[in-house]
Each structure stands twice: as C-alpha cells, then as structure tokens.
C-alpha cells in the first residue's frame, strides 16, 4: 500500500485480556519495527524484523509480549494478560533495508487497559 | 546504550525562527535523525545527519556536531502548522533500532 497501515487505531481492553495489534508495512520494505510511545516518554523499541532473519526481540519488556511477521509482510504484536502499564500508543514502522533509509511510521494503535 | 536529551516544550511566534536542541551521549554513534509528529499522527522523517555541519531543506535545517554530542533543528518562517512534537533519535553501530528522546512539543502562537 501507499503507507504503513495499523489496526485497530484504538483499542480499549480489560486488564488481564489478550490483545493483537496488526501492522501492514509498505510493500517491498524488508525491515519492520515495533515501538511503544507512552505519555511523557520517548519512543521505546520493542522488536525488529529483517527479511527472513531471526527477529531482534531485545526490546520486548516481558514475556507477555510477542510478535510475528508472516510471509515477510504483515506483522502482529500480541500482548497477553494486559496490565494497565501496557497502555500506550504502539507504532509500527517499515523501511527498505535499514535505519539509514529512514523509517515510515504507521499512525499507531492507541491501547488503553482499564 | 544512548542517552538523548531535548527540551520538553517550546513556544515561538508565527513568522519567527526557533532552534530545538538535542544532546546525546552514546558509544558507537553513527548519526542523528529528526522526526516531526503532529498530535495523534505518525512521526514523519525530517532529516538524518551523519557528518558535522548544517544541512538545509527549505524552511528546516539540521545541524550536527559529533565532537560535542549536539544537534539542533532550526525552523524558519514559522507557520501555525509547525506546531507539533519534534523527536530527536540517535543511530548506534550494531543496534537495529533508533534511540529516541522524549520529544519537544513546539507550540506556534500568532
């Protein structure tokens, strides 16, 4: 598509429930990133996918967080047993093949855990 | 790791010039990005500096001093639509991700 598409744009969930956030990157972009943006915080790196390589999961805050990227395209970020501190905007970005090409971000999913 | 610092908020007048500073402390520093983010929207790429000096793109310019660990974004002829958050982010050798500051919220007033 023309840009990075994320869904849903907003999600309200009850504490303890699982949620899935979806990212559809720009066609042909081999690199895909997930970041989290909390109020008053900088963007926090979560996970990075590059082609068929093993993902860099070093930013995932706990084992409740996981992500997949199927067929080198669409990615799903799953948060299990959500907690209130998981409330944030989850941003997905893609790029042609690395940081120096610059990211294109999606508009994010605003997650609210109540 | 990286430590990126930038002011939290700034206010400037329409038509004026504003400079948003960013300092960083990092090992293996490669370069520095600036992104613009309007409220509720995706961050959009503004600039990437690797070499020392000033790079100009229309009303926006970005400066880098590697020896001082310092960058700034310069916005000229401010317009109301420039009200947004400006994110400074560092690029580190061996890291797959960018390291972002907390962002500077710029408010342009008439």
Keyphrases for this structure?
heterodimer; A: 114 residues; mainly beta; six-stranded mixed sheet; four-stranded antiparallel sheet; 0% helix; B: 110 residues; five-stranded antiparallel sheet; 11 strands; 62% strand; globular
Distance between the termini of chain B: 40 Å
Q: What is Rg of chain A? A: 13 Å
> What is the molecular shape of chain B?
globular
Greatest contact pair?
A: A-B, 23 and 23 residues
Give the amount of beta strand of chain B, in percent.
over 45%
**Percent helix among the residues of chain A?**
under 10%
Globally, the shape of chain A reads globular
Give the biggest beta sheet of chain A. Answer: 6 strands, mixed
Q: How is the quaternary structure best described?
A: heterodimer
Poorly predicted residue ranges of chain B: none
Q: Uncertain runs of chain A with pLDDT below 50, 5 residues or more?
A: none
Number of helices of chain B: 0
Distance between the termini of chain A: 33 Å
- Note the main sheet of chain B: 6 strands, mixed
Average residue pLDDT of chain B = 93
Structural class of chain A: mainly beta
Number of contiguous helices of chain A: 0
The count of DSSP E runs of length 2 or more, i.e. the number of strands of chain B, is 11
Order of helical and strand elements of chain B: EEEEEEEEEEE
Order of helices and strands of chain A: EEEEEEEEEE
Strand content of chain A: over 45%
Notes on the protein architecture:
- The complex is a heterodimer of chains A (114) and B (110).
- Chain A is mostly beta strands and 114 residues long.
- Chain A has no helices and ten strands.
- In chain A, the strands form two sheets. In chain A, strands 2, 4, 5, 8, 9 and 10 form a six-stranded mixed beta sheet that branches.
- The radius of gyration of chain A is 13 Å and the shape is globular.
- With 110 residues, chain B is mainly beta.
- Chain B has no helices and eleven strands.
- In chain B, strand 6 and strand 7 form a beta hairpin.
- The chains are: A mainly beta (114), B mainly beta (110).
């Amino acid at each position: 598509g023309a840009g990075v598409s994320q869904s849903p744009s907003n999600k309200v969930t009850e504490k303890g429930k699982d949620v899935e956030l979806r990212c559809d990157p720009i066609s042909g972009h081999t690199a895909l990133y997930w970041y989290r943006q909390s109020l008053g915080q900088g963007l926090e790196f979560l996970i990075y996918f590059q082609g068929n390589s093993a993902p860099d999961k070093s930013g995932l805050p706990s084992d409740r967080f996981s992500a997949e990227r199927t067929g080198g395209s669409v990615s799903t970020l799953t948060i299990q047993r959500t907690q209130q501190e998981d409330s944030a905007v989850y941003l997905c970005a893609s790029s042609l093949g690395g940081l120096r090409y610059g990211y294109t971000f999606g508009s994010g999913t605003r997650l609210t855990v109540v | 790791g990286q430590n990126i610092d930038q002011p939290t908020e700034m206010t400037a007048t329409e038509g004026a010039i504003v400079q948003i500073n960013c300092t960083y402390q990092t090992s293996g520093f490669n370069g520095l990005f600036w992104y613009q983010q309007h409220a509720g929207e995706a961050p959009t790429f503004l600039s990437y500096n690797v070499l020392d000096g000033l790079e100009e793109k229309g009303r926006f310019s970005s400066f880098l001093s590697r020896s001082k660990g310092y960058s700034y974004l310069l916005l000229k002829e401010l317009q109301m639509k420039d009200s947004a958050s400006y994110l400074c982010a560092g690029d580190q050798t061996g890291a797959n991700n960018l390291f972002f500051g907390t962002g500077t919220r710029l408010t342009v007033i008439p």
